[in-house]
Every structure is written in C-alpha cells, then in structure tokens.
Design goal:
mainly beta; Ubiquitin-like (UB roll); 5 strands; about 10% helix
Length: about 80
C-alpha cells in the first residue's frame, strides 16, 4: 500500500507539472517527500526531474522547485 500523503498545513504552495498535469504541492519538498505527498509508493518507481533521471539514492537530496517538470513511472509486475 502506498504511503499516506503528508499534510503541510502552513506550507507555501508551488506549481509543478507532474506527469503532464499542473499540480500544486508544498514548497521545499525533495523527490522522496513529493512521492509521499502525492501518494506514490517509492519502492516501485523511477523519477525524472526536468528531463533528468534522478537516482533513488539522490531522492532525499534533490529539491523540487516551482515550475519543475516531474515524471513518475511506476513499474508493474506480471507474468
């Protein structure tokens, strides 16, 4: 089950483009926090930030700035 979104009641909101759609998110999030905030399980995804793939070890270091373009690709298992 994906983690629950984290509330940020006093945070300033910024606009980003997430998977092609405009979205408001709290300012100052790193990639990992963004995934949690939007309810995505970070175990099975790849993230591209401004057309550059962000390696999972760097998710807590990379900040998501206003007007960022973020693509989240979820891996699907099957047989």
């Amino acid at each position: 089950m994906p983690p629950s979104p984290v509330p940020f009641p006093e945070a300033k909101m910024i606009q980003i483009v997430l998977n092609g759609e405009s979205r408001l998110v709290p300012e100052g999030l790193n990639v990992m926090e963004l995934l949690i905030n939007v309810g995505v399980d970070p175990e099975r995804v790849a993230v591209e930030l401004n057309r550059t793939i962000v390696r999972q070890p760097d998710w807590t270091k990379r900040r998501v700035e206003a007007a960022a373009a973020v693509e989240i690709v979820q891996f699907v298992g099957g047989g």
